Structure formats: C-alpha cells, structure tokens
Amino acid sequence: MNAKIREKLHNYMEDLADDALEKIYDSHEKYCRCDKCRLDVLSRVLNRMPPKYVVTQKGGAFVKLQGLEAQFKADITREAVEALDIVALAPRH
Questions:
Q1: pTM over 0.70
Q2: CA-CA distance, 93 to 76, in Å (whole number)?
Q3: Which of 13, 16, 51, 70 is the most exposed place for a label (fewest CB within 10 A)?
C-alpha cells in the first residue's frame, strides 16, 4: 500500500483505549505509568478489541464511529483493568 494512503488510516479504537486508560490511571495510583508498562497495556487491550479504522480526512467515517463509542466503553474498560493487572504482575521496566 502506498505510504501516503496508509498515513490517512487511523484505528479509532486506539483513542478509545487511551481515553479509558487515562481515566483508570486518574482514579488508581497503584498502576505503573512508565512508557513500557503503558505500551504493554495498550497493546494487550488493542489486541483483544476489534479495530475500528477510519480515514482521518473523512469526517463521515469518524462521526459513524462516535455512535459506537458507548457500546465499546465498558468492554474497553474491562480489558484495560485486566491488562493493567497482568502487566503489574510482571512489569518489564
């Protein structure tokens, strides 16, 4: 695939997972926030959730996915807490 075309794709699930993780970090200080642990957590969450790719230049695709946000919030939060607990047991930092 052409690199310019590829740059326009974005997995919206990354945004949802990152938002969920931030909320958990804000309310639970027991979890490590270092870059390695954070990336380990995000990668686990994203590997367990379905990707939701959008073309960032096209607002229509993004608007459609906003409607899905509420549907995925509970699942993402559950996956994030599980991933945080797993990474906390064996941090790589």
A1: yes
A2: 24
A3: 70
